[in-house]
């Protein structure tokens, strides 16, 4: 595509629900305060696992978000996603009728989807004591949330659900960016949702990738990740459309890249070639030079290997000196690793950093590791001028996605509260 | 407009393992739907599916490579091996970062999800089998393809029910048109598993048929879908790139469009307006009139709900007497699954390349009336230049593609 004719893409609405905040304002406050959402899990019994904790969304009855009657027959994952979508559309002034008339796309990233619902069905049928009700099975497909959003808001544009494990929702932002830049749509709803499930909880435990207490990204004593859940939605819009209707531009999406390590199903390439190439290519598509980047929202899972290799990749891209000048943080230290929603949650954190000019911290970072010797903004957020930020997401299967965000052009209104 | 050429095909399908067997059985309209033998169906209301028989991964890769792979990953990698070989591409001479692997699947490896979860239920928190877990992610097949060939370019997997593979084609088209890559391996794959089949059975989505022996199954359209499985990979490249390397060209992807239908979970869009809009937009984008279309490939899947909607919308668009309108519902031969779009596209492309038409049924068949019995028409010589492929999924969403023999900017593409 000709870069001169390509449309600019801005973020005009944010919606988020995580263990540390159930709306953008509450999430932002907790994010900048460095609050930890990791704790006991009540969704299923975690007794006996090497790690028994995770960052679970604290609200008891999520369904009450949609009034007394609530929303029936949706999985927890889809409910989290609908809550975040509702907020994001409200935030961007795209609610209800005005929404339906436009050709708006929905591109989301999925993780385990309605796995938690499937598990209930499967456990019941396996125990053979009572008959398992089949209705939860209708929402097991990863794309259910995408379909629910499109139906609820009567959207007839492009529809896609990307499922590349932990980079899914980061890539959804990339595809949304493509669809606007190339003129297919003016607006695309992007992001993703993930709920905790026994499958992923047992899976990461079985692989011995979880810290029994809480994750400590880039810390010398790190022992693995903490799982989390939540949803984040970003409304992407062409600059022209946003300007025309006077929408808030929180940030600009400047470019992205995805690639593959082609190395191993669960381990990153120790030479960090894939990760570094994803960052380099993303900066290339964004037409941004390495010295323009101020902040990286790292993948930073707190596994021994990820943090070491990601640090190596950052040095490979920015050079030893350039890497040291960057502010880097892992917001997973607060919200846990939200798998399919991680990329979008971290994108919202990145957009808020650019919008508020505050860099969120990496919490639980006490002991410096010689293999991780960059500035990870330990424990306290930092007010700093930032113009360009990079958001990294790396996944099972060696999938790497980097998204480049720039500071928004205009700040016309404050973030609306959920109510 | 930049055209995209398809230069390699690999297929593991209920109609045969490998491109050649697939094409031969396709031409004869030999059904791939048969009694399930790989798991126990005695407690279920159905026992047939389109499944891949005689698939031996050793024909495509060494046991050390496929040992930890699920069935879906094995079939996907095997398809990629066949497609790459067919394309004549020599990986060592091209930049592997300029090659994408884009896949579509409904559920990924449902068998590994089941096996892993059952290992947890049986053996408790410390007994769950770690080696089963990585294969539960739907992007495992795409990752295995990348690892097998050492392809380091964009790697993405789409899960969008019955338009999963179609979504993959659209994203690959987008990457090629933006010149992000020169080549894309685009695939669709799904595996038939006991758990998936029993879940479809539990929600009442399956056509209720039980057969006794290995007889050929020729069900009537309507009253529930028939599940299928299989994998297919297409090598797609920019036409200029393909011409430069003097590649064999099966056909050209001229346009692709997706629209969203409004419906409830588990159901199809009621009237099919968005399906019709996708078809109209795809024709408009390709600058093709309905009169110019020689072949209509539909996504009818025995459900009745979808079949009838396609009947109604196609009649409106093509404005011909129904006796003159015939369609190819390939899912009547291979069953229904999210990766089927690439296999259907493979059939279209083989037909364009060999200049031999696909078998058809009268469009009346899609009305799924109780008295109808499925009759296929086989055709001998016919020139096929333009094909339309339409797909609609439950949950909402329709895609439409136009494939042609020749590119828009060329009079004729060499049929080497």
Q: How would you describe what is shown here?
A:
The complex is a heterodimer of chains A (419) and B (416). Chain A starts with 8 loop residues before the first strand and ends in a 12-residue tail after the last strand. Chain A has a 10-stranded mixed β-sheet with strand order 5-4-6-7-1-8-14-13-9-10, with helices on both faces. Chain A is built from 12 helices and 14 strands. Chain A has 419 residues and is α/β, with parallel strands linked by helices. Chain A is globular, with a radius of gyration of 20 Å. In chain A, strand 9, helix 10 (304-324) and strand 10 form a beta-alpha-beta unit. In chain A, 32% of the residues lie in helices and 19% in strands. The longest helix of chain B has 17 residues, at 71-87. Chain B contains 12 helices and 14 strands. Chain B has helices spanning 19-27, 63-66, 71-87, 110-123, 140-149, 164-177, 194-202, 239-244, 273-286, 305-318, 331-334, 340-354, and strands spanning 4-13, 16-17, 33-35, 48-50, 99-104, 155-158, 183-190, 230-238, 251-259, 295-298, 326-329, 361-362, 386-392, 398-404. The relative contact order of chain B is 0.19. Chain B is of the alpha/beta class and 416 residues long. The radius of gyration of chain B is 20 Å and the shape is globular. In chain B, strand 13 (386-392) and strand 14 (398-404) form a beta hairpin. At the A-B interface, strand 4, helix 4, helix 5, strand 5 and helix 6 of A face helix 4, helix 5, strand 6, helix 6 and helix 7 of B.
Layout of helices and strands, plus pairs?
The complex is a heterodimer of chains A (419) and B (416).
Chain A: E1 9-17, H1 24-33, E2 39-40, E3 53-54, H2 76-91, H3 96-100, E4 104-110, H4 115-127, H5 144-152, E5 159-162, H6 168-181, E6 187-194, H7 198-206, E7 230-238, H8 239-244, E8 251-260, H9 273-286, E9 295-297, H10 304-324, E10 327-329, H11 332-335, H12 342-356, E11 358-359, E12 382-383, E13 388-395, E14 399-407
Parallel strand pairs in A: 4-5, 4-6, 9-10, 9-13
Antiparallel strand pairs in A: 1-7, 1-8, 2-3, 6-7, 8-14, 11-12, 13-14
Helix pairs in contact in A: 2-5, 6-12, 9-10
Chain B: E1 4-13, E2 16-17, H1 19-27, E3 33-35, E4 48-50, H2 63-66, H3 71-87, E5 99-104, H4 110-123, H5 140-149, E6 155-158, H6 164-177, E7 183-190, H7 194-202, E8 230-238, H8 239-244, E9 251-259, H9 273-286, E10 295-298, H10 305-318, E11 326-329, H11 331-334, H12 340-354, E12 361-362, E13 386-392, E14 398-404
Parallel strand pairs in B: 5-6, 5-7, 10-11, 10-13
Antiparallel strand pairs in B: 1-2, 1-8, 1-9, 3-4, 7-8, 9-14, 11-12, 13-14
Helix pairs in contact in B: 3-5, 9-10
């Amino acid at each position: 595509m000709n870069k001169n004719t390509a449309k600019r893409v801005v973020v005009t609405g944010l919606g988020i629900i995580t263990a540390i905040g159930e709306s953008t304002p509450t999430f932002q406050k907790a994010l900048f305060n460095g609050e930890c959402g990791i704790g006991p899990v009540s969704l299923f019994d975690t007794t006996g696992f090497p790690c028994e904790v995770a960052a679970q969304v604290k609200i008891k009855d999520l369904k009450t978000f949609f009034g007394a009657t609530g929303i029936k027959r949706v999985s927890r994952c889809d409910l989290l996603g609908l809550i975040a979508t509702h907020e994001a559309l409200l935030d961007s002034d795209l609610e209800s009728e005005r929404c339906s008339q436009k050709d708006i796309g929905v591109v989301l990233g999925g993780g385990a989807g309605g796995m938690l619902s499937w598990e209930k069905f499967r456990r019941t049928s396996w125990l053979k004591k009572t008959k398992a009700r089949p209705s939860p099975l209708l929402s097991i497909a990863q794309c259910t949330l995408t379909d629910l959003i499109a139906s609820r808001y009567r959207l007839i544009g492009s529809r896609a659900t990307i499922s590349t494990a932990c980079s899914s929702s980061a890539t959804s932002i990339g595809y949304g960016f493509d669809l606007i830049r190339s003129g297919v749509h003016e607006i695309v709803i992007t992001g993703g949702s993930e709920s905790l499930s026994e499958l992923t909880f047992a899976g990461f435990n079985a692989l011995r990738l979880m810290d029994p207490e809480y994750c400590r990204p880039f810390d010398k004593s790190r022992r693995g990740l903490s799982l989390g859940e939540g949803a984040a939605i970003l409304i992407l819009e062409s600059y022209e459309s946003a300007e025309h209707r006077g929408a808030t531009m929180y940030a600009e999406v400047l470019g992205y890249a995805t690639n593959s390590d082609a190395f191993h199903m669960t381990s990153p390439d120790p030479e960090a070639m894939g990760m570094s190439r994803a960052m380099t290519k993303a900066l290339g598509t964004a037409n941004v030079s390495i010295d323009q980047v101020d902040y990286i929202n790292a993948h930073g899972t707190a596994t021994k290997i990820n943090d070491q290799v990601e640090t190596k990749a950052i040095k490979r891209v920015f050079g030893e000196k350039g890497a040291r000048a960057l502010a880097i943080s892992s917001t997973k230290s607060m919200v846990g690793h939200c798998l399919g929603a991680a990329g979008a949650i971290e994108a919202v954190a990145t957009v808020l950093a650019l919008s508020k000019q505050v860099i969120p911290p990496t919490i639980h970072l006490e002991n410096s590791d010689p293999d991780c010797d960059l500035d990870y903004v330990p424990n306290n957020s930092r007010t700093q001028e930032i113009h360009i930020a990079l958001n990294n997401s790396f996944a099972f299967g060696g999938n790497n996605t980097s998204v480049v965000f720039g500071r928004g052009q205009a700040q016309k209104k404050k973030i609306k509260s959920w109510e | 407009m930049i055209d995209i050429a398809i230069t390699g095909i690999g297929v593991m399908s209920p109609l045969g393992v490998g491109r050649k067997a697939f094409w031969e059985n396709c031409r004869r309209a030999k059904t791939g739907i048969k009694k399930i033998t790989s798991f126990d169906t005695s407690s279920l209301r159905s026992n047939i599916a389109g499944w891949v028989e005689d698939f031996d991964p050793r024909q495509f890769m060494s046991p050390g490579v496929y040992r930890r792979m699920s069935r879906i990953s094995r079939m996907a990698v095997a398809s990629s091996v066949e497609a790459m070989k067919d394309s004549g591409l020599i990986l060592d001479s091209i930049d592997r970062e300029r090659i994408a692997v884009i896949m579509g699947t409904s559920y990924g490896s449902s068998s590994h999800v089941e096996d892993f979860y059952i290992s947890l239920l049986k053996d408790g928190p410390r007994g769950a089998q770690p080696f089963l877990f990585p294969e539960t992610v739907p992007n495992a097949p795409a990752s295995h393809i990348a690892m097998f060939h050492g392809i380091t370019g964009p790697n993405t997997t789409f899960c969008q029910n019955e338009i999963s593979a179609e979504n993959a084609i659209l994203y690959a088209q987008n990457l090629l048109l933006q010149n992000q890559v020169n080549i894309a391996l685009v695939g669709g794959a799904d595996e038939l598993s006991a758990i998936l089949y029993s879940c479809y059975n539990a929600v009442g989505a399956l056509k209720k048929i039980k057969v006794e022996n290995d007889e050929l199954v020729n069900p009537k359209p309507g009253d529930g879908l028939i599940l299928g499985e299989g994998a297919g990979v297409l090598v797609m490249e920019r036409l200029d790139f393909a011409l430069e390397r003097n590649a064999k060209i099966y056909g050209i992807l001229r346009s692709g469009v997706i629209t969203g239908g409004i419906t409830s979970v588990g159901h199809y869009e009621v009237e099919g307006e968005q399906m019709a809009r996708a078809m109209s937009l795809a024709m408009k984008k390709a600058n093709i009139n309905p009169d110019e279309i020689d072949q209509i490939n539909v996504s009818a899947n025995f459900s009745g709900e979808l079949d009838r909607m396609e009947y109604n919308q196609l009649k409106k668009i093509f404005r011909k007497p129904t006796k003159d309108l015939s369609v190819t519902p390939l899912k009547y031969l291979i069953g229904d699954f999210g990766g089927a779009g690439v296999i259907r596209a493979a059939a279209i492309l083989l037909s364009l390349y060999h200049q031999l038409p696909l078998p058809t049924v009268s469009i009346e068949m899609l009305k799924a009336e109780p008295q109808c019995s499925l009759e296929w028409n086989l055709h001998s010589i016919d020139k096929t230049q333009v094909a339309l492929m339409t797909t609609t999924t439950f949950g909402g969403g329709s895609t439409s593609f136009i494939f042609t023999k020749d590119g828009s900017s060329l009079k004729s593409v060499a049929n080497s």
